[in-house]
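During the second year of the project, the team shifted from modelling isolated chains to modelling whole assemblies. The rationale, set out in the original proposal, was that interfaces cannot be judged from single-chain predictions alone. As a representative example for this report, we include one of the complexes processed in the last quarter. Its constituent sequences, exactly as entered into the pipeline, are reproduced here:
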Amino acid sequence: MPKTSNPEWDSSFAFLMAMIGSAVGLGNIWRFPYTLYSNGGGSFLIPYIIAIVVLGLPMLLLEYSVGYKFKTSLSNILHKIKPKFEYIGWFITLTIFLITSYYISIVGWDLIYFFLSFFKGWGADPNLFFVNSLLQQNNSLNGLFSVSPILIISTFAIWIVTWFICSKNINNGISKISKCLVPALFGMIVIIVFYSITLPGANIGYVAMFTPDWHVLSNLDIWIVAFGQILFSLSIGMGIIITYSSYLPKGSNLFNNAVTVIGANCGFEIFNAIGIFSILGFMSHVSGVGVNNLITEGTGLAFIAFPQVFNVMGDVAYILGPMFFLCILFAGITSLIALIEAIRYSISEKFNLSRKKATTIVCSIGFLISIIFTTGMGSYILGVFDGFLNNFALLLGVLFECIIFAWFYSVDDLIKCLNEFTSFRIGNWWKLIIKYILPIIISVLLIKGIYNNIFSGSVEDYIIKGILIIILITIPLILTKMKRVTKSEII
Ligand code: PFF
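Output from the structure prediction step:
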């Protein structure tokens, strides 16, 4: 019996929720507010909107149409276009697998904070708690040998949840979960933001956030940041969109769907940023510290700055805190299942493995890699992984993907697909963008990423990056060379 079959979404709502869930993730909640603030505030929205139109929408349409047309995994699609291109498929798949291994650890930290938030369990000094008590940070190699049991348990718990969802067929697993978690996430964010803007001092925060600095528009770096944010935020070039759209039934309206996903994702991150800044404005009002000294990104914002705010907030923090960490948890889980689904799909298709077997293999290996991030040196390695994989490996993969689809496959065929069931006509403008403009833009992002990776870091950083380079060259090569198991061989 063939072990891989191509399922279909049970409704266009399920597909929409899964797509929005994959896009809205940690990046939207903690990366965007800082990015917006430190890159010109209100004026950043100009390069941001241009990045949506020039990069986000065209790339999303490209991935939608490719997935919809081929109805198979990324590495298989690339193999079909030219067998040698399969290597790029595995390169991208491995890159997102490595990203998943640390992304899941952060969601695990969030799970711990969710429980702590019911009794402000981080104590009077959240910074000390996070760095010393929870992560037991030790940036030397010795740190690798001290594993934190609580971090292992939380990481394991998130892996189990992800495994459980992904091992069920899409309509019982990803579809059901996305239909519950995505609306719940949006509902909670609306409550948090509306409450936040009523806090004393909230206006200090959102005025600081939106105050434009028009000079920055002449700075190329700001444009690079805006394009990078859109790429990251919409989960472009990771095989996720291709995977999800390959489960679309015939007759789906791809254009409308892409526009809705962009609207929901980008609307979410701007709206959420208003809440984050209102809360920081409140903190500034209470503590007298300027918003510019309170805003940080990533773990610093969620696990240090916010617990500090909850400490001065009074009893309402016992509601707002758990809600805030639950939002991160839901956003993280819906992105994680999308990442794992894309990886599992490539494995299932290549080796003709059932969904359950492939998911179990992917999650087991993933968990073993995640253990690195539960050690004392974990958060340090995580920073190096993040900088290298996002600013270099992922961009390289996206560039190749874009060039292959635009130049080695018939774009006209894709246009036909996109125009089949919509009133909006995709025409030569799209061809021009994906053939010429996108490769140039992504190359600029890549050059900047390479520059950052080469010219910054300690000896340890270079060792970790060296190991990643070796892994990223050899494993995709091995996977490409391995024999594809056809359905008839299984019977
Ligand atoms: N787009 C999601 C986020 O912003 O968090 C998910 C995601 C982005 C996953 C980037 C992985 C990644 F490399």
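The pocket of 4-fluoro-L-phenylalanine is lined by residues 23, 25-28, 99, 103, 232-233, 235, 335, 339, 390 (CB under 6 Å). The first helix runs from residue 12 to 23.
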